[in-house]
């Protein structure tokens, strides 16, 4: 039996950034972009991988969720929490997060709690078990201090179900 693949449309969204009130004048912004990698051959025949906005994605395709952040305010921002949801239609790819210099934590309960990946548990039939990739609902990065004028990005990869 052959299944028809349907296409999904993904787009850029503004993501709320949680700031603890350590710096009253910090102005941290974050923008989430969903991308995919396209392989093309250059003039010499060499394969070149470029990232493009994932406007249309088919099941089984890999996508990259990237969050670009910056502090344009007059003060440093302390304990900046960047949280990205993992949509229900996406399976998180283990070990794919970037921003390794920033502490990352994972949630399997809709973002209510966050723990290290190896400690993430879910309840199943009254028993706790280690969370699978498909159980992850959110990823959180905590930046201890984001200085004025500094910027960066974090990301994760997933597969469209």
- Largest sheet at a glance? 6 strands, antiparallel
Cα separation of the termini:
18 Å
Q: Flag low-confidence runs.
A: 1-23
The number of distinct β-strands equals 12
| Tally of separate helices | 0
Please, what is the average pLDDT?
84
- Name the helicity range: under 10%
Strand percentage? over 45%
Structural class: mainly beta
Q: What is the rounded Rg?
A: 18 Å
Helices and strands, in N-to-C order? Answer: EEEEEEEEEEEE
Q: Give the CA-based shape.
A: flat
Provide a descriptive summary of the structure in words:
The structure is a single chain. This protein has 161 residues and is mainly β. The protein contains no helices and twelve strands. It is flat and about 55 Å long. The two termini are 18 Å apart.
Characteristic key phrases:
single chain; 161 residues; mainly beta; six-stranded antiparallel sheet; four-stranded antiparallel sheet; flat
Give a short synopsis of this structure.
The chain is mainly beta and 161 residues long.
List strands and helices in order, with pairings.
Elements: E1 13-14, E2 18-19, E3 28-41, E4 47-53, E5 62-71, E6 77-85, E7 90-92, E8 103-107, E9 121-124, E10 127-130, E11 138-146, E12 151-160
